[in-house]
Amino acid sequence: MKKLLKYQLSTSWVTLLVFAVVYLGIMAFAGISVSFSEGNSTSQMNGTEMSVGILCFVIFVSNYGDNMRFAIQNGRSRRSIYTAALASAGLGSIMLSLYAQIIIFVSSLLLGSERISYTSMTELIYDSNHSVIGHFFKNFIFTTALLLVIAMFALVLAAAFARAGKYGRVAIAAGVPIALFIGFPTLSGIAVIKAPAFSEMCIRLLAKVMGVESGNPYIGSLTMIIAAAVMALIIYFINRRAEIKG
Amino acid sequence: MSNLAIEGVSKNYGSTRALNNVNVTFEAEKIYGLLGRNGAGKTTLLNIINNRIFADKGEITLGGAKAPENEEVQRKFYYTSEQMLFPKEMKVNKAIEWTAEFYPSFDKDYALHLASLFELPLKKKINSLSTGYKTIMKNILALSVNTPYVFLDEPVLGLDANHRELFYRLLIENYSNNPATYVISTHLIEEVANIIEEVVIIKKGEIIKQDSKENLLSEGYAVSGAASMVDSYIKGRKVIGVDNLGGLKSAYILGRPDNELEMGLELSSLDLQKLFIQLTNS
Fold this sequence. Notes:
By secondary structure, chain A is mainly α. Chain A has helices spanning 2-10, 13-35, 48-73, 78-111, 121-126, 132-163, 166-194, 196-209, 217-239; strands at 43-45, 116-118. Chain A has one domain (2-162, 217-239). In chain A, helix 3 (48-73) packs across helix 6. The longest helix of chain A has 34 residues, at 78-111. Chain B folds into 2 domains: 4-215, P-loop containing nucleotide triphosphate hydrolases (Rossmann fold, 3-Layer(aba) Sandwich), CATH 3.40.50; 219-280, Alpha-Beta Plaits (2-Layer Sandwich).
């Protein structure tokens, strides 16, 4: 498992490096542009966690199939592939979360000014006001849980894709974006009009389980960790009988 | 090293039966030829042994230990197939490094030596290699890995005559220095006939023969001559096939030849390819 994990992590470090350089470049450009512009308007820079989240999704969704084939070529079992995938998702989430915190911190330290501030996701969602260390810790935990759930979702899709036949793959490739970005918003929109009470209940439930209602990001983190655990179980069942396709 | 036993293995792809109750044993330190026509089930069998796909029925064991999903067993196998399971963007030298990482018995220096013999470009991406060089890369890994069982599915696919000869020579050398079980699945029967010791013939998903090459070839003989003479000779004998060429005829017969043959008839031993063709025709 250790060797598989080492291999999986080794395939991503270049991506991370390129991402960091490009991201810091954009942040610096934005910071300098605002600082040297005329007027008194202020600007808030955020979205670091979500961009790292997308990076995390792309890394896990794109590498899983290749990793599985390579592991089988080298005599590894599906159980090892599964545990290595989970370990790399866990370790990857922690590392990427730390990475996001560092990017926010470095951006604030080097480029932050009275006119531009770099904010984290927990500040935006939970409006939290804590000491620097307290805030760092809260945002780190929340981002880690968020990235873990994203990584697991990517692994569910990748594992299903690796196992599926020709038509299954088409269904996943076309069905998931349609379900997420067309189906779900459309249904939500219909629910708001046709069943406002139900819609209201769903929103309240979401706010509750994500800790938004109580202003507690740890509740949201716990919910996301539970969701990740459920997805880990799904991946296990998909992965255990997955065959290598030609 | 223990024997590899395949017992009652069946596999279906939808309504197509790829393997039907396959029973075969691969003994330690022998070179096997796994022979069969296209679609006979050779690759399916090798894929099942090497944990790439699952059998619907049956068992595969190495010294009593189940092979599927068992890393202890799978680490004793190395399998190269037409399927490329290395990431396409990986460079050849990285493929060598990573194989060495996963297989402690892998001889990296030997692999690099073979790479220079075959003039395999180490810094190229696998994806950019020609079919022949992809095969060469896989063969180099297989020859350097030093596992007790090595499975080679079409190991000379895309290789020119020089590289094929070099590969066969290295295989024999390697086998002499580090005996292991080699299972070679190929269509080029004449080329491997001198290398293999044991023959497994698979037809329509079923094993129809498993024996040593010597035994198999001594099971029969060929008689050639004028068609009418051959026809009269083969009456009452177990004929496995005939070839006609103008007025001449060759018959392939199971059993022992008569001590004395009628004038005009010529006796010869069966060759593996002829025997294979006769056994797998129809």
